[in-house]
Amino acid sequence: MKDTARSINESISNGEFPPLIYPFREKEVQTAISHLENRDVNILMIVGNQGAGKQALVQLLTKKLIEGDTQTSIQGATIFLIPSEILAEDEANLKYLRGNIFNHAGKVERAYSQPILYTPDIQRLAQMGADPHELGLWLSQTQDKWIVTIENDAYYKYFNNCAPWNNAPLFQPLDLSELSEAETEEILRERQHWFENEEYDLQINPSAISATLEYCEKYLKSSIRPGIQIEILEEACRFAAKK
């Protein structure tokens, strides 16, 4: 398979992502599963501001499908990441890429062998000049299951009033709201163990978590939780590890 597409399932199984402790996203995960197992839904659109956790939600969904701790008709599905830049390339290359994905998925014994294709930040295509209407038509005509993520402002600017993006249930939006400060603190404390033991081999003073939250609340009020808080804590760990 080409390096431009990879299995999110394999990345999670190989421990490439930090542990995901998001019990407060359980409702959104179950909603995503419900949409994806609906035969009338082709494209699940996760809509949220930068930093709200759109990528983390896809990882949580994948983890659910791997662990089998929920009853669903899409149990065992493989989710393949296809960057938005690939959709901007020529059609022949994309067909080749999809062919490799489907051949790979068909060789794996699982309850649900059809892959789910995942493209983050699909608004980049519109920002590069792609016609949202033509893009929507193409996605719907592939008859594949897709997950795409879109930033809030871009969704309303490019997609909300554009057919077929507002053609329910074929295109199904899922709004991702900002997490609370308490939920963000829980994520940071879980991420602390990952940074200490897996990433940077250092010890984080517990007060660093509170300091991160206070700094963001004071100076970065317009930023969306939990993304910016995670970035700042990791940047501090990266800086300390170099010293």
Record the SSE blueprint.
Elements: E1 6-7, H1 8-13, H2 26-36, E2 43-48, H3 54-67, E3 79-81, H4 84-87, H5 91-106, E4 116-119, H6 123-127, H7 132-141, E5 145-151, H8 152-159, E6 171-175, H9 181-199, H10 207-219, H11 227-242
Parallel strand pairs: 2-5, 2-6, 3-4, 4-5
Antiparallel strand pairs: 1-3
Helix pairs in contact: 2-3, 9-11, 10-11
Keywords:
11 helices; 243 residues; alpha/beta; single chain
State the end-to-end CA separation.
Answer: 40 Å
Number of distinct beta strands: 6
Tally of helical segments: 11
* DSSP helix fraction: 40-55%
Sheet with the most strands: spatial strand order: 1-3-4-5-2-6
Class derived from helix and strand content:
alpha/beta
Instruction: Characterize the main sheet.
Output: 6 strands, mixed
Shape: globular
Q: Over all CA atoms, what is the radius of gyration?
A: 19 Å
Strand portion? 5-15%
Report the mean per-residue pLDDT as an integer: 83
SSE run: EHHEHEHHEHHEHEHHH
- Name the poorly predicted regions: 104-112
